[in-house]
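Recall the central idea of this unit: under ordinary conditions, the amino acid sequence of a chain determines the structure it adopts. In this exercise we apply that idea directly, starting from the sequence alone.
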Amino acid sequence: MAGISDRKDWFAIQTRPNLEQAVSKALQMKGFDSFLPTYKEPRSWSDRVKMLSLPLFPGYVFWRKDGERTLPALTTPGVRSIVSFGRVPAPIPEGEIESVRRFIEADLNVKPWPFLRVGQTVRVEKGPLAGVDGILEEFKGSYRVVVSISLLQRSISAEVDGSWLRPI
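Accordingly, the structure predicted from this sequence is:
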C-alpha cells in the first residue's frame, strides 16, 4: 500500500501570462507529468485567419506531484506558484482531471466556460462523453454540459444532444 508521500496527486500551477505551453514542456523535461488542455480558436488578422491552440484554463498547468519533490517545479521558468490553501498545495480530485481529459479526447467543440455554482447536475448517457457528470446549461437553443475544476473556479463546456443526458 502506498503511503501518503508515495501518492502522486494532481495540482494546479499558476503560470505567468502566455507561458502555459513553455511551463508544461519544461515540467516534462524535468521528469514530471504535466497536462495542458487546449482548444482551437480562429484568430483574424488583416491579411489572414489562423487557428490557434489556446489553453482551456489560461494561466494554469496541471502537474502531478512526485512525492515531496516541489522545488524543481517551483523553480521552473514561468511558474508563479502552486495553487495552495495557506502554505499547503491543494490537490485536485483525479475525477476532475479525468473529466477534462475525456472532453479533450472526445474531439468535440470544447471551449472555456464561466464557473458555475448552481445548475442541475447531469450524467451523459450516450456519445463520446458517456459516464461524464457535469452541469447542464442551455446556450443559444442548444444544450451544453459544463465540467469544472473547483479549485481554480474555472470550467469548460461542450455541446451535447439533450437526449444523451440524465439528471442525477
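Residues 141 and 159 are 11 Å apart (CA to CA).
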